[in-house]
Amino acid sequence: MELTPKALHRWELNHMAWENWRDGTTSNLIDPTLRGSPIVEMMRCIHIGLLYVQQNVADRPNMTSLLMLNSNSVALPAPTQLASFL
Predict the structure, then answer these.
(1) According to the model, what pLDDT value does residue 2 have?
(2) Which of 5, 15, 73 lies closest to 49, judged by CA?
(3) pLDDT given at position 75
(4) Residue 44 near residue 76 (C-beta atoms within 8 A)
(5) Are the C-beta atoms of 85 and 11 separated by less than 8 Å?
(6) Environment class of residue 1 by beta-carbon count within 10 Å: exposed (0-12), middle (13-18) or buried (19+)?
């Protein structure tokens, strides 16, 4: 299967996010002009996004649980391996 340029770009972004998460450098994904904003909220959004691109579909949260994940009172599970699109 050949990826379109758009699909390849999406895969590269997901892969970059995963690598930064794994290496503990997730803040590298945040645009420097947003550094004054609440970084905890941005990191949580990145974390939630990674949960939705996990390799094992069964590990991905369903849309109903998204409301619970957005609550700061709920601890997020660690994302597992990123899905491979290539």
Answers:
(1) 66
(2) 15
(3) 85
(4) yes
(5) yes
(6) exposed
